């Protein structure tokens, strides 16, 4: 006997009923197909049809794999039948059913589908309520951890992170929500800083996204197309944005952050006069090597309002 993927060849002694018995047992079938065949026969002998998803659970397969294998089985076991109701796929062996029983099962399959749909609706509502309640309860114990990714370059701490494609991300904020010792959510906020007269445009956003999609760290390739991993939040920071940039960012899920918003937060929350234009005028008069030191000094000094 030689076995193939589904069916092979059987041998038997002439003048005996060995072939008939072996065919009935499914000896010519691949072990996986034979297991499916036995399950269908088991239900059919009990005068019952069986849904593909039930067989998938018992055989450790996916429903579509069960249907695909059953379709192949039909070429060998011609009595195997596949019935597709409005919401399910049913399998049975018609040797065990009369025409009247088959008509009854067609009607019953639709009734079961209808009832299953109602139950599924209720479970869906319950699932939503459960998630609301569970998250509220979990959030009583949740803590948020965040830190900027940094490396040591030439003996100095640097926040510009070079990717596998040799391009750089200006700054990366790693965010993690934790409950006890277990991580609930984990993602990274990727910042790109851009200054351009007239405002950052759609091309700048496209370059930013391409930089991420073509990297091993934040991109992936599937069916010849590149995309970005789902646990990242791209943020483009600029003094202003063009209309096409705003439309492109909305379409591709990029957050646009105005530089003036950082200045306003520094002023309102920390009392620092950190207007970008003002700082530019001060630092352009100084040596470029001193910019980092002077900038830190300015942003550490609270603004003292002038007394009139």
What does this protein look like?
The protein has 308 residues and is of the alpha+beta class. The chain has two domains: 95 residues, Arc Repressor Mutant, subunit A (Orthogonal Bundle), CATH 1.10.10; 129 residues, Trna Endonuclease, Chain: A, domain 1 (3-Layer(aba) Sandwich), CATH 3.40.1350. Helices cover 44% and strands 22% of the residues. β5 and β6 form a beta hairpin. The N terminus and C terminus are likely disordered.
Cα-atom Rg, whole angstroms? Answer: 33 Å
Indicate how many domains the architecture comprises: 2
CATH architecture of the largest domain: 3-Layer(aba) Sandwich
Q: How far apart are the termini?
A: 105 Å
Briefly note the structural class of the backbone. Answer: alpha+beta
Average pLDDT over all residues: 87
What spatial order of strands do you see in the largest sheet? 4-9-10-13-14
Count of discrete alpha- or pi-helical segments spanning 4 or more residues: 10
Shape: elongated
Can you tell me the residue ranges where pLDDT is under 50 for at least 5 consecutive residues?
1-6, 304-308
Instruction: Give the H and E element order.
Output: HHEHHEEHEEEEEEEHEEEHEHHH
Oligomer: single chain
CATH topology of the largest domain: Trna Endonuclease, Chain: A, domain 1
* CATH class category label of the largest domain: Alpha Beta
Tell me the β content. Answer: 15-25%
Largest sheet: 5 strands, mixed
Q: What share of the residues lie within helices?
A: 40-55%
Number of DSSP-assigned strands: 14
